[in-house]
Amino acid sequence: MVPEPADPVVARLCRLCERAASSLSAAGAGLSVFAQDNQFSLLAAADPASERLEELQLVLGEGPCIDAAADRRPALIADLGQVAPTRWPLYADAMRDAGIRAIFAFPLQIGAAQLGVLDLFRAEQGPLSGTELRRAFDLAGEAVTILLDGQEQRGTERTDDVMAGPFELFQAQGMVMIQIGGTLAEAMARIRAHAYAEDCRLIDVAREILAGDLRFDRDQ
Amino acid sequence: MSTVSAERLSKIFVEVADTLVDDFDLLDFLHMLTVRTADLVGASAVGLLLADQRGRLQFMAASDERARILEIFQVQASEGPCFDAFHTGEPVLNADLQSAGDRWPDFTRHALAAGFRSVHAFPMRVRREVIGALNVFGNTVGGNFDDADVHVVQALTDVATIGLLQERAIRRGEVLTEQLQGALNSRIVIEQAKGAIAQAHGVSVDAAFTALRGHARRSNRKLTDAAQDMLTDPGSWAP
After folding, report:
1. pLDDT per residue over A52-69, tens digit each?
2. What is the set of domains in chain B, with CATH numbers?
3. Residue A100's closest CA among A179, A30, A186, A44?
4. What's the ipTM?
5. Which residue of A has its CA nearest to B208?
């Protein structure tokens, strides 16, 4: 598991949700993470109204956020009115009552490592533009980075894209998962921490791991 | 390449139609297509790259997944025939690698080192958008694709695009973005599983992929699901 985030992490994620809402013309934005029991828990939201919207899917156990996580791909609902009534019987009604017409859910993940979901709520129906989609993916990538790096502040807000790593990085992640007997998310966090500490590039760390020149043990 | 026989080509399209049913695995499908394309045109290797949301090409599938070959695909995030085909929407044909060093220095170095002598690249198009490219490598100088070959390989490239669109029923306009994101993430799952198998069983990542594929076939699981299973419970996974 990613270490239980302390307040600074939640604060950074709340700011990220605020930026998501304001830069993507959304009425709200929220972010839920996987807790230890594989259930979602709400971690951050742009404002109290977003928090209630985000919480609703967790309470009802249905909605785009749940689907995006299960399918491991974004759930882009440009018009809630077009959604079949059987898809989310309770959730869709509740959202309409709250004045939400469109929801866009982005999984926070790297391959099989699932960290959570970022949700955008809009009061108007209609799809995100190409530019808005790219912006949303960038924000999702940033949220993954914040979750992985946890409390360790790296100075400047890094906006590296965790999904665009070279394939060696993901292979190394799989190897480290076995070495530490932990999760893929922990493995990536360890690789990144090592790269920061040694001030070297992720790809170079990955190649050392693949060559067997660098190993991670159960205890750091 | 020699002229493709209509019989061999029609067999491939039957296989494609058989595969494009409910709940097929996109990575299995794209792998099959790269292998069949390589067989059909007598290519040494065929690979397929898809663009991520920032328009960078990412490796998706290849007829040969040895690490040194994957590197050739990876370097095309910034230069190479696929990069060109993706950005112009036009195929790159019969490029002679021995005289391509000025055009694509990094790519050419990697490709020559792997023993390739010629390269072609075909854009993957959806309406007006280019979403990726198919790469064909040969071991003859300059390649020798004629017009008929070009049409056949472009048709197979279009089939790969159809596979991507078909993976789930198309529900909405943004479906392509969803598919691409899902596909790119599936590829990462495979790489993670390769690393985990290599570490747990003391084999190379190349051998790990062969083991993963064999395991998926024997247990009748999709490749992505087999990789997911392994990562969820590595302790009880046996090659």
Report:
1. 999 998 888 899 999 998
2. 6-167 (3.30.450.40), 186-234 (1.10.10)
3. A30
4. 0.85
5. A171
Return the CATH number of A165-210, one of 1.10.4100, 1.10.10, 3.40.50, 1.10.3470: 1.10.10
> How many degrees, rounded to 5, is the angle at CA B196 between CA B236 and CA B26?
95
Pairing of strands A28-34, A75-77: unpaired
Q: Scanning every residue of chain A, which has its alpha carbon at the shortest distance from the alpha carbon of B194?
A: A171
* Contact between residue A64 and residue A75 where contact means Cβ atoms under 8 Å apart: yes
Distance of alpha carbon B229 from its chain centroid, rounded? 23
Nearest CA among B104, B164, B168, B175 for reference residue B134: B164
Alpha carbon of residue A107 to chain centroid: 5
Which one of A72, A137, A184 has the shortest CB-CB distance to B192?
A184
Binary contact (A73, B53; C-beta < 8 A): no
- A30 by Cβ neighbours in 10 Å (0-12 / 13-18 / 19+) ranks as buried
